[in-house]
Write a structure and sequence with these properties.
Membrane topology: Multi-pass membrane protein
Subcellular location: Membrane
Shape: globular
Distance between the termini: 50 Å
Structural class: alpha+beta
Number of strands: 23
Main location: membrane
Number of helices: 17
Pfam family, one: DsbD_TM
Strand content: 15-25%
GO molecular function: protein-disulfide reductase activity
């Protein structure tokens, strides 16, 4: 193999020298002309886990390295590994390249710093503390526009089996490198040849952003590398018209959309030509249609959030405040508008921060803030405060809490709406996931409109009460029953607080949960003191308010210092942690696969798991039909999982995927599961449920 590689290298260099007469006259400076470091994402991989290695490459000015398909000239890199027993190396993954045309020859190259990534699989059963020396010899070709030089690098690192901890600075570097890797398209493309031309039809949403697009073929001799590519948008597809060479069978490639690469797999078929006139006229229309559909889905998803246990009590209290107030027509309308403004502002602000984080290279999704223990603690204190208020421990006429007195004045209504939107972020439901996923590929103005639609959906019931007098008149008359209902509504809020304490414990361990409960106890004592003052006719007390703020500040500061805990799910029903490598392995075996993605802070996820996935009938159906179960835990915002979730047009969890044997793409199940849905698919091994 080494002799064959050297022979090919020699022939390639000879060809380049013939094409570039001035090359013999030039003497390159001593190499290496690409500086390469072997960097491990973690130096302490856990037994049975995977660790990603990066070839951090930095070409000298004027020099370039080559992509996996170098084009008309050049050679890809070649690796020779020396690995400990049981350690396996995956394929070399390349970032999206650049185009370089030299004397009519198209080259796919890297002229700027780049990184190729490789995944190593650590075997099970390796004792902690075991040293795993890793060595690799990389052979590659490096060129200028006039001369090429073969180079090699001897690289090594030493791993020590441990806890898979990743330093923050290294995680950030690998996030940047992974962002440049192409993502799976998820849908199959088709190609058709006509004479010396071929058309490739690639599924691509009409509303998705598209910049300077280009198709990089991985399959050799399918298209003419140096030929001009005519890329036309035609509804929900891109049609590429290019000169054909010898295309046959499946054609693989990478579509550069002008900022993001997509892995494309095209099979022979019938590809209708695109109409440039129709595309020009219809692209904007289709884009608006996609945006409007996402907006409608977000409104409907936000409307459903109102029945969640952390939002319903707040909405109920605001409705009761209108029933109690009666009177002036302008008052309920102003209250409704202020409440809606608070909800929409928070949703748009969270959406804007999310889009900013993603533009900076972070793989963030909806409810990204809940990956921080400090935010969980703040939510725990807020929800506990609402619960104690509903239970009658105190009355606080400030906008921070949803209570009876907060119903008076638009300031209280605005802040109540903002609070309702903030505490609703752990929840998701039908229509919402797809809508927010679509927002991530829409232009930023349309994306922010989708997030505003989510807020509008949450605020819609209260808006209707404010602007439709017959609905207000249908509310029960004020009376003692309102106090009873208020106490009842404290129960779901206390349950929400318990769930948040559990999430805090999952993120930071028993110490974090104890710290959160101590903070709640301290806050409860201050609420009790303030409530006692109110019972005697005094104000709540400025000192108590300052003390509450101090509890929140000190609590968040302390909880952030606690070490993170591995919160991955237990391997119930023979489930395994999700990885794309394991998914590919199981699919290669022809097994049906049920992959679901969850997080401890996702209320919908936990309801589905306890009422559907982890029930005895579903477990039995999965086991009887040999269905492999993979669980992706996104509690800590794992960027690898985040990118996989995003590739299926979702902005966050839950995500449920059913891979039937032999199917090209998974069946994306609804975000609200039923036992029958999963059992029928298991019985049919991918049949409709």
């Amino acid at each position: 193999m080494r002799a064959r590689y050297c022979a090919v290298m020699t022939m390639m260099l000879a060809a380049l020298l013939v094409l570039m007469p001035g090359a013999l006259a030039q003497q390159p400076a001593p190499g290496p002309h690409i500086a390469i470091d072997l960097v491990a994402e973690t130096l302490r991989p856990a037994p049975g886990s995977e660790v990603t290695l990066a070839f951090d490459s930095r070409p000298d000015p004027g020099w370039h390295g080559y992509w996996r398909n170098p084009g008309d000239a050049g050679l890809p890199a070649r690796l020779e590994w020396e690995l400990p027993e049981g350690v396996q190396a995956g394929d070399l993954r390349y970032p999206v390249p650049q185009r370089l045309l030299i004397s009519g020859l198209m080259n796919y190259v890297y002229e700027a710093p780049f990184a190729q990534l490789v995944t190593l699989r650590i075997p099970e059963g390796v004792a902690r503390g075991t040293k795993l020396p890793v060595s690799v010899r990389m052979q590659y070709l490096v060129c200028t526009t006039s001369i090429c030089v073969p180079e090699s690098a001897e690289l090594s690192t030493e791993l020590v089996v441990g806890d898979s901890a990743i330093p923050p600075d290294r995680r950030e570097r690998f996030d940047r490198w992974r962002k440049r890797l192409p993502k799976p398209l998820g849908s199959e493309a088709q190609w058709q040849r006509e004479g010396d031309r071929m058309r490739i039809a690639i599924p691509f949403p009409a509303g998705a952003r598209l910049g300077d697009a280009y198709f990089y073929p991985v399959t050799h001799r399918a298209v003419a590398y140096g030929a001009e590519q005519a890329i036309v948008r035609d509804g929900d597809r891109l049609v590429i018209d290019v000169e054909a060479v010898e295309p046959e069978g499946r054609i693989e490639g990478v579509l550069d959309t002008g900022g993001q690469g997509l892995e494309v797999s095209a099979t022979p078929g019938t590809v209708a030509p695109a109409s440039a006139d129709a595309e020009t006229a219809g692209a904007a229309t289709n884009g608006w249609q996609a945006a409007l559909m996402a907006f409608a889905g977000a409104v409907l998803g936000g409307l459903i959030l109102n029945v969640m246990p952390c939002v319903f009590p707040i909405l109920s209290l605001k409705a009761l405040s209108l029933a109690r107030a009666g009177g002036e027509e302008a008052h309920p309308r102003s209250e409704a508008l202020a409440y809606a403004a608070g909800v929409i502002l928070v949703c748009v602000a969270l959406g804007g921060i999310l889009l900013g984080l993603r533009a900076a290279g972070t793989s963030a999704g909806w409810a990204f803030q809940l990956q921080s223990p400090a935010v969980i603690l703040i939510l725990l204190l807020l929800v506990s405060g609402i619960a104690f208020n509903l239970a009658g421990l105190f009355e606080l006429a400030t906008p921070g809490f949803a209570n009876r007195a907060g119903g008076r004045g638009i300031g209280g209504a605005f802040a109540t709406g903002a609070l309702a939107a903030f505490v609703a972020t752990p929840c998701t439901g039908p229509f919402m996931g797809a809508a927010l996923g679509a927002a991530l590929v829409l232009p930023w103005t349309a994306a922010l409109a989708v997030f505003a639609g989510l807020g509008l959906g949450i605020a819609l019931p209260f808006l209707l009460l404010g602007f439709v007098p017959p609905l207000r008149r249908a509310l029960p008359r004020p009376g003692p029953w309102m106090e009873v209902l208020r106490r009842i509504l404290s129960v779901p809020m206390f349950l929400t607080a318990v769930a948040l304490a559990w999430v805090l414990g999952r993120q930071t361990g028993a110490d974090g949960m104890a710290l959160g409960l101590l903070a709640v106890l301290a806050a409860a004592m201050l609420f009790w003191i303030g409530g006692g003052r109110q019972a005697r006719g005094y104000s709540f007390g400025a000192l108590a308010i300052v003390a509450l703020a101090l509890v929140a500040v000190v609590g968040t500061g302390l909880v952030m210092r606690l070490p993170a805990v591995d919160a991955r799910p237990t391997a119930g029903m023979n489930a395994e942690p999700f990885s794309e490598a394991r998914l590919a392995e199981l699919r290669g075996e022809g097994r049906p696969v049920f992959a679901y993605f969850t997080a401890d802070w996702c209320l919908t996820c936990k309801v589905n798991e306890k009422t559907v996935i982890e029930t005895a009938p579903v477990r039995q159906a999965l086991a009887d039909n040999n269905v492999a179960v993979l669980v992706g835990d996104w509690t800590d915002g794992d960027p690898v999982l985040g990118r996989f979730i995003e590739s299926h047009n979702r902005a966050g969890v839950p995500l449920y995927l059913w891979y039937a044997p032999g199917a090209e793409a998974p069946d994306v199940l609804p975000q609200i599961l039923t036992q029958a849905m999963v059992r029928e698919r298991a019985a049919g091994q991918g049949g409709e449920g």
